[in-house]
Design a protein that fits this description.
The chain has about 90 residues and is α+β, with helices and mostly antiparallel strands. The chain has 2 helices and 2 strands, in the order αββα. It has a two-stranded antiparallel sheet with strand order 1-2. It starts with 7 loop residues before the first helix and ends with a helix.
């Protein structure tokens, strides 16, 4: 199951739970990780979130992916399409 398969109500409950857990963890620098689908490295077939403290540049989740220049016209068109779907 992925986030896109959840009801809006369940998504809202997950969001509220994330806030509570993040506060309980007590970190001020952290990543929230959630994967959907095997290609995105989802290993467990249900929606869950990881709150990963980032105490320093060398500890915690390392984020690195190949970035590419953005065609702002294409990005604007995508954003407009997504807005219609919402």
């Amino acid at each position: 199951m992925g986030v896109h398969e959840m009801s809006v109500e369940d998504g809202a409950e997950c969001g509220a739970a994330l806030v509570r857990v993040a506060k309980a963890v007590g970190a001020t620098d952290y990543n929230v990780l959630q994967n959907n689908g095997a290609a995105a490295h989802q290993a467990v077939g249900h929606v869950h979130f990881h709150i990963i403290p980032k105490p320093s540049q060398d500890q915690g989740l390392g984020v690195g992916w190949p970035s590419k220049p953005v065609d702002h016209a294409v990005a604007a068109a995508m954003a407009a399409e997504f807005a219609k779907r919402i």
